[in-house]
Amino acid sequence: MSERFDRYEKGMTVRRRILGDAHVDRAEAAKTPLDEPFQQLITEGAWGNVWASDGISDRERSMLTLALLAALGNFDEIPMHIRATARTGASKEDVLEVFQHVAIYAGVPRANHALKLAKATYAEMETTPE
What we know:
This protein is mostly helical and about 130 residues long. The protein folds into two domains: about 1-55, no CATH class; about 55-130, AhpD-like. Helices cover about 80% and strands about 0% of the residues. It has helices at about 5-20, 20-30, 35-50, 60-70, 80-90, 90-105, 110-125. Helix 1 crosses helix 3. The longest helix has 20 residues, at about 110-125. It is globular. It holds the Pfam family CMD.
C-alpha cells in the first residue's frame, strides 16, 4: 500500500472522527470531478497530516483552528468547526476564550462575527443534533 493511500485513509478516519460521518458523507456525495483533487488534498494534508498528529490534543487543535479561521476572516468554516467541538472536547467556554484572544490580537469585528456564528451554530446544535 502506498504512503499516499495510507495518508488518505488515515485522513478519512480522522475527518470522520472530528466532523462526523454525516458531514463527511454529505461532502463525499457532493464531490465532482472538478473538486475531487481538492478533496483529496485536504483529506491527505489537513486530516491525514495535521489533524492526525499526536503533537497536540484534538481540543487544542480545534481551538487553534477556530482562532485562525476567525483571525483570518475565513468565516465560512467556523460553523463546521463549532459543530466539531462536540467531538474534540472544546467547550463553549474554550470557544469564548479563543474569540476573546482573537479580539485582542486580530480585531474585535472578526471576533464579534465569529462569536455570532458560534452562537447561531450552538443554538442549531441544541435543536437539531446530528
